[in-house]
Amino acid sequence: MSVSAADATLAGGLPGDNPWGAPPRRRRPKLTLDRALFMAVFLGLPVAVFVIFVVVPIGQALFYSLTDWTGFSPVMNFVGLDNYAKLLDDETFLKALRNNVLLTIVVPLVTLVAALAIAVVVTTAGPSTGQVRGLNGSGFYRVVSFFPYAVPAVVIGLLWAQVYDPAAGLLNGMLTGLGFDGFKDYAWLGEVRAAMPASMFVMIWANIGFYTVLFVAAIKGVPAEIYEAARIDGAGRFRTAISITLPSIRDNVQTAYIYLGILTLDAYVFMAALAPGGGPANSTLTMSQHLMNTAFKKSQFGYATSMGVVLALVTLLFAALVFAVFHFAGGRDKKGDVRR
Amino acid sequence: MSTVTLDKPVAAHTDRQRRTPGDALVAGTSHTMLIIWSVIVIVPFCWVLLSSFKTSKEILSSPFSLPAEWSFENYTSAWTKAGIGTYFFNTVIVVGTALVLVMLLGAMCAYVLARFEFFGRNFIYYSMLGGLTFPVFLVIVPLFFVLQGFGLLNTLPGLILTYVAYALPFTVFFLYAFFKTLPDDVYEAAMMDGAGEWRTFFQIMLPMAAPGMAGVAIFNFLGLWNQFLLPVALNTQRENWVLTQGMASFSSQAGYNVDFGALFAGVVMTVLPVLVVYLIFQRRIAGTVSTGTFR
């Protein structure tokens, strides 16, 4: 028993969402000097750090994005929405935006389906007699598939850049070894057709394990009686997974989807390590890479921050979209059906 | 708290019941798929480990053979010449300090937000939540100048503070949920016995939240150890580099004179500590608070 209720709490969807616990009692204690001081210190310190290093820069970013600031001279002119208008004509930026959207459609979907499948198998797909449990030896798979998450994304990128290496790489070596001679010296990251799928695979490879662990913890938080009841009613494994497990951990799937979306809309680290230049014909260039180039190589800080703002807006839009989809798609299996 | 979960230990003899053919089929396919997946995960790691003992020439000419002689030369050259040693210590200092600070500040903030009613509580909580979704990219440029203003640009304390600020929303978000589930009775009992707010927090509530803290700390450790973007933009002096920056510099070198042996050795040295931490602690996050107090 290595993943516990502590993990389940970690993975437990939105805070305050405490499905099976007693509702927390609220009371308003008297405000003494001791308590006021306590709250001031406990809240003041973290909030100060947060405001100085997160909130203030966000505010500044919004302002800079409306100027033509170069970053190193104090001179800046207010240019209104010119930067944003320029973005609409920036072919490279639009290409990068399309790449990010593509990543955000494919990577979370594949990752979550695979992670859910593994999580279901290792928790509830075990023998149909006795207690509801996972496959034998499932702990091994859980530990192994989490490995990539423990590796820095930069290193994963480097590692896979070596695996994909045309001449000395592991992948081509194995493929030619198996008799597919067409892959000799095939540049996985150098061909327009292959670069994007190859990069996507790396991101999926890197993330499945983490979300598996998250879902395993969530599934373990579902009361066992529900599974036993479903089994007595004659539900098979697949039916149980679709009708019991999925609705029970819906909030976790939603949170995971948003997290992965944020990751793929950024994608900087993976892409910068796999193809620092943006890949063949910019086929793997992301908005974040373009932003970094524009800011720190071309010194167009005002313009670069307007890209950051667009990136933030796209991220918020994506999060709103996921919330909306889960809200409407979830209409049928409301929480009350499964949770008591 | 639900006490009956899938974790509940079961009497051994129920396992001995007969397996149906369907069970065998499902188990067979699942095991096959999972083994293929495990191979895809493990093989690249093994290949890197193997390559880290070879010379650069061997790596390029015969990528799959065993090394002619097992030497640690790549490791020493990566550690000293490529500067991995310095980066390693920088990373340990930065991540260690930031982790302690963020856990402390995060716990304090989450505790107050979760257990006290006051004006502006929701506003602070939702701003933190917003900070979780905002891409770091939006703020990377202004952040550069904020740090410069404090004289903290390109210094380790500056990097530590930035790490703390950006790990804070995540920490608060999850510890908030955790502090909410702690039983009120214990708090009230502590108050009744005359412990002030400070003592109640540090001696009663914080220890009770230890399992949750451990979980969040592990994720923070992994996240901070693997952090790349913040140091790349804010910590540009070579002697202050962290490991991920050192590793990235391998890939940006011109293709021909990359010291591949040192690269692979560097990958192993970066990955190993994290894997060890993970393997030790993945079994440690066991037990819940309520089992400890109520059963």
TrEMBL record, chain A:
<dbReference type="InterPro" id="IPR000515">
    <property type="entry name" value="MetI-like"/>
</dbReference>
<protein>
    <submittedName>
        <fullName>Sugar ABC transporter permease</fullName>
    </submittedName>
</protein>
<keyword id="KW-0472">Membrane</keyword>
<keyword id="KW-1133">Transmembrane helix</keyword>
<feature type="domain" description="ABC transmembrane type-1">
    <location>
        <begin position="97"/>
        <end position="322"/>
    </location>
</feature>
<dbReference type="GO" id="GO:0055085">
    <property type="term" value="P:transmembrane transport"/>
</dbReference>
<dbReference type="Pfam" id="PF00528">
    <property type="entry name" value="BPD_transp_1"/>
</dbReference>
<feature type="transmembrane region" description="Helical">
    <location>
        <begin position="36"/>
        <end position="63"/>
    </location>
</feature>
<dbReference type="InterPro" id="IPR051393">
    <property type="entry name" value="ABC_transporter_permease"/>
</dbReference>
<keyword id="KW-0812">Transmembrane</keyword>
<feature type="transmembrane region" description="Helical">
    <location>
        <begin position="198"/>
        <end position="219"/>
    </location>
</feature>
<feature type="transmembrane region" description="Helical">
    <location>
        <begin position="256"/>
        <end position="275"/>
    </location>
</feature>
<keyword id="KW-1003">Cell membrane</keyword>
<comment type="similarity">
    <text>Belongs to the binding-protein-dependent transport system permease family.</text>
</comment>
<feature type="transmembrane region" description="Helical">
    <location>
        <begin position="143"/>
        <end position="164"/>
    </location>
</feature>
<feature type="transmembrane region" description="Helical">
    <location>
        <begin position="101"/>
        <end position="122"/>
    </location>
</feature>
<feature type="transmembrane region" description="Helical">
    <location>
        <begin position="301"/>
        <end position="330"/>
    </location>
</feature>
<keyword id="KW-0813">Transport</keyword>
<dbReference type="GO" id="GO:0005886">
    <property type="term" value="C:plasma membrane"/>
</dbReference>
<dbReference type="InterPro" id="IPR035906">
    <property type="entry name" value="MetI-like_sf"/>
</dbReference>
From TrEMBL, chain B:
<feature type="transmembrane region" description="Helical">
    <location>
        <begin position="200"/>
        <end position="225"/>
    </location>
</feature>
<feature type="transmembrane region" description="Helical">
    <location>
        <begin position="125"/>
        <end position="147"/>
    </location>
</feature>
<keyword id="KW-1133">Transmembrane helix</keyword>
<keyword id="KW-0813">Transport</keyword>
<feature type="transmembrane region" description="Helical">
    <location>
        <begin position="260"/>
        <end position="281"/>
    </location>
</feature>
<keyword id="KW-1003">Cell membrane</keyword>
<dbReference type="GO" id="GO:0055085">
    <property type="term" value="P:transmembrane transport"/>
</dbReference>
<feature type="transmembrane region" description="Helical">
    <location>
        <begin position="24"/>
        <end position="50"/>
    </location>
</feature>
<protein>
    <submittedName>
        <fullName>Carbohydrate ABC transporter permease</fullName>
    </submittedName>
</protein>
<feature type="transmembrane region" description="Helical">
    <location>
        <begin position="159"/>
        <end position="179"/>
    </location>
</feature>
<dbReference type="InterPro" id="IPR000515">
    <property type="entry name" value="MetI-like"/>
</dbReference>
<dbReference type="InterPro" id="IPR035906">
    <property type="entry name" value="MetI-like_sf"/>
</dbReference>
<feature type="domain" description="ABC transmembrane type-1">
    <location>
        <begin position="88"/>
        <end position="281"/>
    </location>
</feature>
<dbReference type="GO" id="GO:0005886">
    <property type="term" value="C:plasma membrane"/>
</dbReference>
<dbReference type="Pfam" id="PF00528">
    <property type="entry name" value="BPD_transp_1"/>
</dbReference>
<comment type="similarity">
    <text>Belongs to the binding-protein-dependent transport system permease family.</text>
</comment>
<feature type="transmembrane region" description="Helical">
    <location>
        <begin position="87"/>
        <end position="113"/>
    </location>
</feature>
<keyword id="KW-0472">Membrane</keyword>
<keyword id="KW-0812">Transmembrane</keyword>
